[in-house]
TrEMBL record:
InterPro entries membership: TPR-like_helical_dom_sf, TPR_2, TPR_rpt, Ycf3
Keyword Signal: yes
Protein name in UniProt: Tetratricopeptide repeat protein
Entry GO terms, CC: cell outer membrane
Domain of life of the source: Bacteria
TPR repeats: from-to residues: 68-101
Family annotation (Pfam families): TPR_2
Signal sequence, start to end: 1-20
Keywords: Repeat, Signal, TPR repeat
Lineage: Bacteria, Pseudomonadati, Pseudomonadota, Alphaproteobacteria, Sphingomonadales
Listed GO biological process terms: receptor-mediated virion attachment to host cell
Amino acid sequence: MKTCTGIAAAAIATALAASAAQSGIMVAGNSSARICYAAAARQSDNRVDLRPCSLALDHDALTTRDRVATLVNRGIIYFHRADWDQALADFDAALAIDNNQPEAMLNKALTLLRRDRSGENAIPYFTRALELGTEAPAVAHYGRGLAHQLDGDLTDAYIDIRRASDLDPEWDAPRNDLSNFIVQPVG
């Protein structure tokens, strides 16, 4: 058995900034929904980029999948604008249509983590995103690791951050955070 000693709150805040919402969902065609996806994919925080998303949701004949995708993509733009409540409203609307949408789960978890600076509400969404096969498992593990760390569960934090680093060895944030842990045998 191993125990972990962790890092300071300032380092957690920095790491939270690095785990921005992502995992936009691609939509087909040249519609407003496609423009919305492009804005989410480039992590836009521009208010103007919300307009195509809203136009698509209000006026385009979207498939159920594209409606869910557009809600997630608009939520990502709201996330990057630090409008946590609007982002959560869009992720919740997407989950009301498809409660098994892993990217909606992941982005909701990231938003809760950023808004609350606590892992309590976010951890179940990270876990569910992983169970549903999110396209960004490294992000989900890293976010869940930060959530565990904020809640004082340093062992699970280390395990998840280590897993994120293993899944995406080129990603600096998890690899750097691992250097802040000291792993010692118990006993």
